Amino acid sequence: MRRRGFGADYLRRRSEIARRRNRLAPVADVLIASAECLDAVVLQASLHLVFGYDISIRTAATLGAAIERVSEAKPDLLLLEHRLPPAADALSTLAILRSCGCRCPVLVLRDSRNLAGERALLEAGASDVLDRADISSSRIAEALLRNPAVLAEAAE
User: Fold this and answer.
1) d(C-alpha 121, C-alpha 150), whole Å
2) pLDDT score at 50
3) Which residues pair with 30 in a beta bridge?
4) Segments of the chain with pLDDT less than 70
5) Contact at 8 Å (CB) between 60 and 32?
6) CB-CB contact of 147 with 128 (8 Å)
């Protein structure tokens, strides 16, 4: 029998996140490239659940600011909004950021109205494409675990 109202679901989710976190490579610096302030706040909270509170989370609301943040320090993880002003789409933004030396895993955030282009983004080097409405700490951890480049070495 499933218990409700006593935090069992919350504790089960937290336990799953902890198990997944142990399989991820260490992340010290995350860049959130999003023009939406609310998205950035939700993402920060989710990232703290996945990686803990000792990570640096930087934000950029425009492509120019994202390029500046990448040139200051290369992030370990980039969360990229599908449309980051003034670029036309995430595909062109991703190409520009890669040309600036950003080699980290990239999770692209899109809204449910913009379903086209996922395959092209993955082929261009995005680690995963997430629906903005489906953002949660467990979804971020799942996306990162699907990318072998971010998994911690089993031997360590």
Assistant:
1) 18
2) 80
3) 57, 77
4) 1-7, 10, 14, 17-21, 112-116, 147-156
5) yes
6) yes
Predicted local confidence at residue 156, as pLDDT:
38
Q: Mapping DSSP to helix (H, G, I), strand (E, B) and coil, where does residue 129 land?
A: strand
Q: Which pLDDT score, from 0 to 100, does residue 152 have?
A: 44
Residue with tokens 């989370």: 57
Q: What is the per-residue pLDDT for 154?
A: 30
Q: What letter represents residue 152's amino acid?
A: A
Q: Residues near 64 by Cβ (< 8 Å), separated by ≥ 6? A: none
Q: Does residue 117 come out as left (phi exceeding 0), alpha (psi in the -120 to 50 range) or beta?
A: left
Token couple for 97? 């950021």
For residue 36, give both structure tokens. Answer: 């939406």
Closest CA to 126 of 142, 153, 147: 147
Backbone angles phi, psi at 14, to 5 degrees: -60, -40
- Asked if 89 and 109 count as a contact pair (C-beta separation under 8 A), the reply is no
Give burial (CB, 10 Å; 0-12/13-18/19+) of 35.
middle
DSSP codes of every residue in 42-92: HHHHHHHHHH-SSSEEEEESSHHHHHHHHHHS--SEEEEESS-TTSSSHHH
Q: How many whole angstroms separate alpha carbon 60 and alpha carbon 66?
A: 5
